[in-house]
Amino acid sequence: MSLSSSSCWLFFLIIIFHLVSTSANNGCYTSIISFGDSLADTGNLKQLASIYHRSFPYFRPPYGETFFGRPTGRCSNGRLIIDFLAESLGLPLVPPYVGGDTRRMDDGVNYAVAGATALGSRFTFASAETSCKDFIGRSLILVGEIGGNDYNHPLILGKSIEEVESYVPFVVSTIVLAINDLINLGAKTLVIPGNLPIGCSAAYLTIYYGSDIKEYDNTTGCLIRLNKFAEYHNELLQRELNRIQDINPNVHIIYADYYNAAMQFYVSPSKYGFKNGVLKACCGGEGPFNCNPSVACANPSYMVCAQPDTYANWDGMHLTEAAYKLIYKSVFEGSCSIPRFNSLCPSLTLHKRDYGAF
Fold first, then answer.
1. One-letter-per-residue 3-state SS of 118-133
2. Dihedral angle sign, alpha carbons of residues 286, 292, 294, 297
3. Where does the signal peptide begin and end (predicted)?
4. Catalytic residue, candidates 31, 252, 318, 337
5. Is-catalytic flag, 315?
6. What proportion of the chain, given as a percentage, has pLDDT over 70?
7. Where are the alpha helices (DSSP H) in 190-344?
8. What is the CATH number of the domain that holds 39?
9. Active-site residue among 31, 34, 37, 38?
10. What is the DSSP letter of 70?
């Protein structure tokens, strides 16, 4: 029996509405608002550098080559955790705020800037008007990773781990201030990542090369004291997040455990496809970890590995797209978040979209 033309048209509209609503946000969040540093920057530093006529190595090949085919301002060979998150929610990749079209903020906005620190900055976003509060309330707020550069800069300059450890309470307090500001502006779901296991970074393994054998973890080859430092930051951060959650029972505060999500592949590289290892940089040129922290990956003298997806480390300090994808899956689809993110948004599905614009 054939359907009437009006019934066919109604059926068509229902199907289209279902497809549009599903691909738009998967029923969870209408957009992503992001803050942070190079782990989440999708082009802000690149835009700022252009305005002020400056250049950084991250804006030159081979950055961006794996997925985008060109540098986008991301400090990797391809996508970042925030990109995989946007894909999974059926949202556009989150555009950088600097140089962006403010009329398209409904698609989300990214304020993360490579090199940014927590200390010495004050969080600002928008007014508390009803329309703004509604927009923020419908959005997934990604607060970080923040604080890593507050530690990286002094450690690379030679300050002792003990001295830099004294910064941690101040860094965490600044993160807490930002979270409280966002809640006051209407945020309902916030994801706050902890620090990565920096003792497994090729840059730090190079800086501290030649340390006593007792300084290294027998299982991973990572630097024990630096990883304990990251764990200390994460413990203080989680303690404060629990306190904020108790005060704000109607807000979802999610701790993203980047540390243990990454530690999985540092413990078992081959299990996760890193046949060329997890401690040596893909883009580099010298030393046991293929890394010289004072020379950038885009330096013409540097060699780029043929298969970046078989490496976890990209340029010494940052990870490859393959590593970021595994961290994304462990945090947002797996068990490396408290509470589990997929208990709040259980229908994550990876969508394929055209990302040529970013």
1. CCCCCCCCCCCCHHHH
2. positive
3. 1-24
4. 318
5. yes
6. 85
7. 202-207, 224-247, 258-267, 321-328, 341-344
8. 3.40.50
9. 38
10. S
Active-site annotation holds for 252: no
User: Which DSSP letter does residue 304 get?
Assistant: E
Query: To which residue do tokens 């989680």 refer?
Result: 238
Give dist(CA 42, CA 44) in Å, integer. Answer: 6
Question: Where in the sequence is the domain holding 136, given as residue range(s)?
Answer: 28-197+223-257+317-344
Quick check: is 101 in a domain? yes
How far, in Å, CA of 165 to CA of 144, rounded? 19
Q: What local confidence, expressed as pLDDT, does residue 103 receive?
A: 56
- CA separation for the pair 218, 227 (Å, rounded): 13
Q: What is the DSSP letter of 2?
A: P
- Alpha-carbon span 200 to 198, nearest angstrom: 5
Structural contact between residues 153 and 117, judged by C-beta atoms closer than 8 angstroms: yes
Q: Tell me whether residue 38 is in a domain.
A: yes
Domain count within the chain: 1
Amino acid type, 83: D
Tell me the pLDDT tens digit for each residue of 90-136.
Answer: 999 999 998 776 556 777 899 999 888 877 655 455 544 556 788 89
- For the question of residue 83 being annotated catalytic, the response is no
Q: Which of 139, 150, 315, 337 is catalytic?
A: 315
Is 47 buried (19+), middle (13-18) or exposed (0-12) by CB count in 10 A? middle
Q: What is the distance between the alpha carbons of residues 35 and 32, in angstroms, rounded to a whole number?
A: 10
